[in-house]
Amino acid sequence: MPGEHSSKQYDMDLETIRSKVLLMGGLVESQFHDAVACFKSGNVAQAEAVIKGDDNVNSLEVSLDDACSHLIVKRQPAANDLRTVMATIKVITDLERIGDEATKIARAAKNITERGVTTINHYETIRVMATSASNMLHDALDAFARLDGKQAIKLIAQDEVVDHEFRSIMRTLITFMMEDPRTISGALDTLWVAKAIERIGDHAKNIAEYVIYIVEGKDIRHTDYAATQLDERTTN
Length: 236
Known about the structure:
This protein has 236 residues and is mostly helical. The chain contains 7 helices and no strands.
């Protein structure tokens, strides 16, 4: 009976942590959405709200890291349970970094508006890429919530699309700057935003990889595991 009680308490503690992680995920998803929106509209107040909101994300990271540490010390999880806790800690770190990238986008939006940079259509330059990365983040959080390994595998393949879009944007912005030096300031801000979006895609991919680690016990970082799995399903 004591063992059963301890197991139930561990499950409750872990579920509490998972719920807070998903809350944190919702916050950074909103941050990203709002950051892209103010990059489009030039709304300085909205940009400042995104920047200020990063404090909430940072506080959640600290409290969740502490909760995970206490869970390990108190419950001493082993095997699959320990793997779940360790992967969750890594997810928390990636979510905090997504919040940081969203803050960078908001700062760039604020800078462009305050300087009155209007020589390029900066939002249209990153619109498609932002949508792709936003979808990746949403799917990563959904895969983590449901521990859906299949969805995680599909998501990982999408990262190459975001990387390709970033390279295309970089070439476009370099062309703008070469053809008209007046666009350099705005183009550089837009390039920093594109890089932040590309990094958000990377962090979403990381979360998907941790989902697979939890579900299958396989560390697929720096491997072609996801591509192999998709190829096998296509063949079959």
